[in-house]
Amino acid sequence: MDNAILRVRDLSKRFDSEEVLRGVSFEVCKGDVKIFIGPSGTGKSTLLRCLNRLVEPDSGQIWLGDEEITRATDIDGVRRRMGMVFQNFHLFDHLTALGNVEIGLIKVLKMPKREARDFAMSELARVGMDRFADKYPAELSGGQAQRVSIARSLAINPEIMLFDEPTSALDPELTGEVLEVMKKLASGGMTMLVVSHEMEFVYSVASEVLFMEGGVIVERGTPCQIREGNAHGRPCDSNPRDSSRSFPRTKAFLKRING
What we know:
Blueprint: E1 4-15, E2 18-29, E3 33-37, H1 44-51, E4 59-64, E5 67-68, H2 75-81, E6 82-85, H3 97-107, H4 113-126, H5 142-155, E7 160-164, H6 172-187, E8 192-195, H7 199-205, E9 208-213, E10 216-221, H8 223-229, H9 248-257
Helix pairs in contact: 3-4, 3-5, 4-5, 5-6
């Protein structure tokens, strides 16, 4: 893809004797929402962590724009370009919601404190958390804490957002508020890479679903191809030529997780 903003080539990672990633390759264009699904322990979270250099890959290349970031020495610069939202929020307990969002603006981007506060408030408003600006993480629900985490990542104005199972630590009734924020980001054109098994969300926002197993991407397709064109035997209106693809491993996995 000539207009790809992220290119991953033959990415591999081993932990001791376990080969977690085995030559993973894909490309992402601006505005794409790529969602990774698959069994636990198949490398999905490790892949995201390799992308922003929280985990160093053993081999392969990652390009962000024209820069090969696998060779970059300014790791903080890489992470400013790719915001990451974790499963367990990673908020600072001693800071308020506002403090958690503004600290990166002040410490990393060197923004004046008054400007940082105003900007942080606007990001909290973006995720519906401005009313809770003075609350500490212990005073927030899990869904509220995760929305603060999203606001913190958005505040640095990343080119790409990485979401590592952002609702897995939440009770079912709190999951929807986080997914709603993510849907709004997707509809607004945010480029996103997501690990999630919330399949209704996946079907509603993904530009492509990538099924990982054994450290590799084994099947990939649009939500239409996976859910409609094959699950019900109907061709996808957008691309009827692909209706014959069966995605057997993806469908077997979805059958398992859906009971």
